[in-house]
Design brief:
By secondary structure, the chain is mainly α. Helices cover 72% and strands 0% of the residues. The longest helix has 27 residues. It is globular. It starts with a helix and ends in a 10-residue tail after the last helix.
């Protein structure tokens, strides 16, 4: 699988997920408070992210417990993003209006690598899509 096309699909999936999550947030604001709307849309965004990464971006079931890995990676992204925002505003004294963009600039490439790790190896001793595309094969367990 070509890294450039995979990354392009990753960016498109991320944009789709962002728009869908935001629209859900706006819809939920009509029937609930902003905290409930935010949490519900965030959780729905994690679920949509899993589906998009598994079927549209990496086209692989991924590692064992991949859905839990995806959820954990989003929590990691939240923590890293908050750290970048804090660093940007408090230490670098950058404009607060650009803090979220700084977080995106740091998080998107790192999250791509994390998601790629989650989905590009089955973690079950089988061949990943990446291995199939490059002609490499893994041992089937015999002889090693």
């Amino acid at each position: 699988m070509n890294l450039r096309s995979t990354f392009a699909r990753y960016l498109l999936a991320g944009a789709t997920n962002t728009v869908a999550s935001y629209l859900l947030y706006l819809a939920l604001l009509q029937v609930s408070g902003y905290r409930v709307a935010y949490v519900a849309s965030f959780v729905a965004g994690i679920a949509l992210s899993y589906v998009l990464m598994r079927f549209a971006v990496f086209q692989s079931p991924g590692r064992r417990f991949s859905s839990l890995w995806v959820a954990a990676s989003h929590l990691m992204q939240l923590a890293l993003g908050l750290a970048v925002v804090e660093l940007w505003v408090m230490w670098l004294q950058g404009p607060t209006e650009l803090a979220a963009l700084a977080a995106v600039a740091v998080c998107v490439p790192l999250m791509f690598l994390v998601q790629r790790w989650i989905f590009m190896s089955s973690g079950r001793g089988g061949r990943s899509r990446e291995d199939e595309g490059s002609g490499r094969s893994q041992s089937s367990g015999s002889g090693r």
